[in-house]
Amino acid sequence: MKKQTVLGRLLSTYSIFFFIFLYAPVALIVIYSFNSNPINIMIWDGFTLDWYRSIFGMTNTLSESAIYVESTDQLLSSLKNSLIVATSATLVATLLGTSAAMALARFRFRLQSFYRMLLFVPMVMPDIVLGIALLIFFVGAGFTLGNGTIIIGHCTFLTSYVFIVVSSRLAGMNPITEAASADLGANEWQTFRRVTLPLILPGVIGGALLSFIISMDDLVITYFISGVDSTTLPVFILGMIRRGIKPEINAIATLMLMFSVIIASAGIYFKSKNATH
Questions:
Q1: DSSP category for residue 232
Q2: SS3 state of residue 73
């Protein structure tokens, strides 16, 4: 009994240090996004919201020499590109990933295991390798680099994430419910719309939200296949960091973190709401 108590305390201590190690850097970004020191962002010099104001081109109490965002229009344009790419890629990847998951779960065909393995490859492939491969393909095929190529590139690996999430949902679904629907006279489309889709909807929503967040945050692959006028928010932030660590970077990172938390919370809410019905 005493041994179990000691082991439990060690496990609790390890868990505490693990979460500190995991979230301390994130907490520092949030804290220092309110630091008024324009020179050294790691030295606290008072609380301010000026970095958030300067992001959106609003008036602030800092001198003009302390404003580091080169162009608010460029920032908002990169955010717009990220939202367009993430929304489009999520819709396509959700459709493809859900269709592939249902096909592999409902039908048996030759090379099925090989096909399933191919869906996992984009997830385990290094981003830089996939980015270079996509760049060579687009340039060789005569594509003009832009939002279109980014959307296609993101779909190549986002489909895998949706496939895995929806497949896990299908694996836990009782196939008898679909058979009962067919016995009651429903055709395949009615069975899918009234039985299958409501049961797998939490997985579909979860896969879509996961894809959206991954697409919004992707940097390496997007960096290779983006054009001149299709800079996304992560690529824009990378360009800012190359010119020095600037206070606005912490503010932008904090806003992206809040956005990710909101999306994740929405996914949990819809999943719990669906489970109660």
A1: -
A2: helix
Closest CA to 271 of 205, 210, 214, 212: 205
What does the angle CA 191 – CA 197 – CA 199 come to, to the nearest 5 degrees?
A: 105
Distance CA 81, CA 146 (A): 10
User: 117-138: buried (b, 16+ CB within 10 Å) or exposed (e) per residue?
Assistant: eebeebeeeebeebbebbbeeb
Q: Which domain holds residue 223?
A: 72-244
> Looking at the 3D structure of the chain, how many domains does it have?
2
pTM, rounded to two decimals: 0.82
Last residue of a domain, one of 66, 86, 114: 66
For the record, the structure tokens of 179 come out as 């058979």
Residue 255 domain flag: no
Comparing CA positions, the residue from 205, 224, 217, 206 lying closest to residue 152 is 224
Alpha carbon distance 234, 247 (integer Å): 16
What are the structure tokens assigned to 223, written together? 């960096």
CB 223 within 8 A of CB 238: yes
What is the per-residue pLDDT across 128-167, written as a single tens digit (0 to 9) for each?
999 999 999 999 999 999 999 999 999 999 999 999 989 9
* Residue 198 exposure: Cα atoms within 13 Å on the Cβ side: 12
207 vs 38: which has the higher pLDDT: 207
- Cα of first residue to Cα of last residue in the chain, in angstroms, is 43
Predicted pLDDT at 70: 56
Place of tokens 């868990």: 15
The verdict on 79 and 60 lying in the same domain is no
